[in-house]
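ENTRY TYPE: paired fold submission
RECORD: A
CONTENT: sequence, then structure tokens
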Amino acid sequence: MALATITTKGQVTIPKKIRDALKLRTGDKIEIIVTDKMEAIIRPISKTVDELFCKLQKPEQKAISIEEINNAIASRMKSKFK
């Protein structure tokens, strides 16, 4: 069992054991559901495609065309299977 304490500001630190089990990282969002039995369920919120894309996008990186992508793949495949 993992215990946590509520601060005067109503904040709670989720114990590392729980964060690891739920694969929670800094900045992740969670949903807290209160059941009829007065129990709280903590559930990680899934990331949206937009959130993931923003982590992959590099504004300083020049966009490349589909043709350039296809040529790079073809070149890599040729060199790999020679």
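RECORD: B
CONTENT: sequence, then structure tokens
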Amino acid sequence: MGKNQKIEMSKYILISGFNIHDNNRGTAALSYGSLFFLQEKSFLKKGQQLINYRYYKNPFKSHNRKNSEEYFQLGGDKYLHTVFNVLFVEKWLFDKLGIILPFTNFGQTIKQVELVAAINGGDGFSDIYDTQTFISRLFDIDLAIRLKLPLILLPQTIGPFESKNNSLIAERILRYASKIYIRDDKYIANLKDMGLSYEMTKDLSYYMQPQRWDIDVIDDSIGINISGLSYSNKFRTLSNQFEYYPLLIERLIFFFQEKGKHIYLIPHSYNYVEPELNNDDMVACREVYNNLKNKANVILIDKDLIAPQVKYIISRMSFFIGTRMHANFAAIYTGVPLFGLAYSYKFQGAFEANGIYGHIALINNITAFDIDNIIREVDRVYNDSMKK
């Protein structure tokens, strides 16, 4: 495992960012995949348990006092995942004074952690969304560094960093990490400049298998993932970059209707009960569907699906157009021809790492005049894929 490796196996593995119930089915897919990845790489061993910490402020709420437990079956082995609730005072004591109370769940379990493995949302080791998002995902990593626990950066896109300070924080973490896995080549030059070793591998979502569910998919259908982030055009530092995205989606639907195809509108990051403001794909998909003057052959996937079920519906498409990176990964890893509507360089790196070139269009700050060119590119890729 590299530096800081313990001689004896400890009881716990802390997967930072682990949440199979995340609104973003892509992030949830990373969590599912991380289990199989860590087991395959022999970091997760039989008899160990998975843990996370959840920090809360109100001790009078009963759900804050009860830890949550869930079992996962990996091959022939069963693993327990526990989320320990930690009062914010404990977090403050550790953050400010380095004090760990030995009689609490946190104090007793942190001493038995074998390693910290960080997901960071797959592309959250970056300030692309904003500095707050980057920093908010680093507490477990900081915990590992301060307590000298082994740290693994699970396969992800590193960078870009607009802020020099954020870049320095990232470098400190990268230099400490016992193992760095990457899913594309976008930061390799930087890692080489630092003299750091790394291993390129597939995205964690590759390791998550699709789960069949009760739906009859029409043959030769087109799947379109609509991003609530882009559709709202109000998401953090990416605000006001996607004015013509709704028109692009409408034109794409019409384009495939003209070809006589059935089109499935597939949300990939959403909360079915409490939508996330300016970032909910279901809200965007419903609005697109409701605004269509012609709904012929258009099917809205309006259902609260888990990540493996979303991967299944995408796997049944004959062609897929995705704006969420992990919606595209679901297509890539199930062999579905695709075209990516990209808002970050992570798309190009991820596509090319999987041998796919010329299948993306950047949608940041496009104008109405760019839409025709994008549709021509989609048509080219679609026609090429149908010939194979």
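NOTES ON RECORD B: The chain has a mean pLDDT of 93. The chain has two domains: 12-207, 222-387.
STATUS: closed
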